[in-house]
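Q: Convert this sequence to structure tokens.
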Amino acid sequence: MDFSDAGYEALIANIFQRFPSVQKEGFSAGAYKPGLERMLAFDRTLGSPSKQFKSIHVAGTNGKGSVSNLLASAFCSCGYKTGLFTSPHILDFRERMRVDGEMVPKDYVSDFLRTWLPWISTHELSFFEITTGLAFKWFADCSVEVAVIETGLGGRLDSTNILTPALSVVTTIGLDHCDLLGHTLGEIAAEKAGIFKKGVPALVGESQEETAPVFEGKARNFCPLTFADKTRPWPQAPSLLERMDLQASVQGKNLSTVLAAIDLLKSEFQKLNNTAAVEEGIVHTARNMHFHGRWERLSEHPYTLADIGHNAQALGPNFARLKELLAGGRFSALIIVYGIMADKDLDAILPLMPEEATYLFTTPRTPRALPAETLLQRFRACHNAEAYACPGVSQAVQKALELAQKQEAPLLYIGGSTFVVAEALELFP
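A:
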């Protein structure tokens, strides 16, 4: 088929309009379609690409994106042709699927969609089911040796759960998407444990009191289970953590999970026994995988960090780290550009926000966003810090930069949502 950039952009715009994504529309408007029946049928129609490569399946409330990228980078560094499927994307939806760090080509996406759109429409697939099928087919066509596959939501009913992987990984469990996954840590853990497969080793990042019995119950007489925090740590782990280009404070837990996963995979993937190559991949994950929005430094002057952490479990360590940096004396002021989706638990997040900061609340370009004025009102009900509401991310960043010019050594943090970070990245060359 003839390809043009203009034709591709029109096709993608049409797909986004006809098949709402959870990232854009939330869990309404038909964007979220739990269940495996449609995905299984799509996979069979595509020639069962999910069965044509080895895989690592990763679920969890927080950290699953970082763990997936760290594992993929380690595999690449060891010489494996490696696929990586993650979500959401930040700037380009092709970020969701990569082979050896490179995004799927536009012409491949165009050919795939034009070929399969009639079937997709007839069977009313979701946006995530479409992208999952696209990723699996591309990985199979590329003859990848291994693919690291991140779940979209939950695990048991997630489209990616048609896989039978070499290893099932669950990172951390927290209270997020409670209306869909459960209102307790145990209920959510049960959904995540749905990715466990009979006889396939399973790895869980943390042995939490409320969730460990759930995982143990699911694994009993079903599959081998390991808790990463109960394994013998690598002696070089502290040095790796210091050198990693992923520098959020939560990366210590993620690294522990990744190193435990590599130990479990060494017998099947012999090249992982090359410790130097594994370490090289882990240290340079952000560079190798073009991984954005995880404590990412956008600017030196002013020193600007961006992070897509969006719930209390992720934001708590981020805000704590910002307070530590401010107290350390290197920075004279903390300025935070912040926006949030309306479905997040703001009541759990507000107490974590540093009183020592100046806030620029904003509304990113998505109908899911909580209006900046509403956010400001709720913030002022429990904080006395200086705060402003800005109509858009660009205006918030501009005001933050103006405030930064008045400070000797300002620290600027941009976060609260993938959408806020996505719009901000476009403002920093």
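The domain at 296-425 is CATH 3.90.190.20 (Protein-Tyrosine Phosphatase; Chain A).
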